[in-house]
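Justification of computing resources. Each target in the renewal requires a structure prediction run like the one illustrated here; the chain below, 179 residues long, is used simply to show the kind of job we budget for.
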Amino acid sequence: MPTSKQRSLLAAAGAVAAVLTLAAPSATSALDGPEPKAAEATAVPAAVTEMPAAVTEVPAGAVGATATAGSAYVETRLFFGTERPDGGPDVTDEQFMAFVDRSVTPGFPDGLTVQDGRGQWRDANGTIERERSYELTLLYPASQARARGPLIERIREAYRAAYGQESVARLDEATLADF
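Resulting structure tokens:
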């Protein structure tokens, strides 16, 4: 029987999945269309805003929607914007991959995935920013989550400092992986 903490983590993960499932079509269309009026904004459920900042342990029995085999892992996704708030030139592919080689690979030499993307977010001034972005996926054993957390935070801080970014988003999910 899951503990109260495990049930809370599972409920939070379910809420995130529900929000992403419902918000993905409108987020995609928002990239192509005009900015919505304030009255059209969607509230974020309380369960999402109360989620822990980082996964430090994987709940017993946590299984992805279709995973049936494998070991407990944590999937961390980091989202890096490329526009520079200081007005400097956008971060190039060469600069980003050099950053990965210098700041990510030493801590995660077993592998990682980088995907190109387009994203949007509301900056500190309330402006909706749309930009080219990178999604970095890291997969590591759940037993290493506590040790890997500080490494991931250093990656986020290094990118913010190097390219003058307000934020690097982080998403942690418990999963099963088999290689």
